[in-house]
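ugh ok fine here u go
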Amino acid sequence: MSKDLKKKNFRKSFFNIVKLITLLAVLIGIPAYLMFFNKSILDITGEYRHLVNYLQAHPKYSVFIYIGMEIFQVTVSVIPGQFFQMAAGSVFGVVYGLMLTVTGKIIGETIAYYMAKLLGRDGIQMFVGEKRMDRMMKAFNSEKAYVFTFVFYLIPGTPKDVLCFPAGISNMKFSAFILISTVARMPALLGSIWFGDLYMKDNFTGMISIAAICSVALVLGLIFRKQLHTLVDRIYEKIS
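structure:
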């Protein structure tokens, strides 16, 4: 065996070991650390009031703490994130809260997207499962990839963050994925942040109005999903 071939095999083996260590750290190491050694983080992020109190108790660093939490929630889904946007609205207000949330989401999605490229399909499959992985890859590599991504991120309640990993090993370009996912999730983010702002101000009429609008939008989205697909297709054809 030539020296060049030995070096090539060594580099390949070394890279595979690095990928395995990274995968184990993300899949097992970080969740285990949070569960057994720093459970307070899960307690804080799992309750709206705890999260608001924690951010208000650290005013100098609250912006960085919140962005860090958003990044961590996207890349390590063990952290519950259902109260994040609502807390952002309560602490930072609608406009600033939306800016911070979008910043955290974009950074988190960027890390997850390129982490997927590092780990490869076999590694990501351990995150999402083989069957779900096959469905996602089929959708991402199809002609309807942009439509699928837009609709998935638009509908409230779908597990959006897990989609970053399959996107990273698909044929979809990074710039297209970030743009589509950010625009599509904006209505849901705005609604949650605005709801948190109104809750902090005891504006229950406004809260009921937002909840009603979101519910109607969700129902209409499900009813007219085919028409929505067609509309996104037309927009894509015009800009492509």
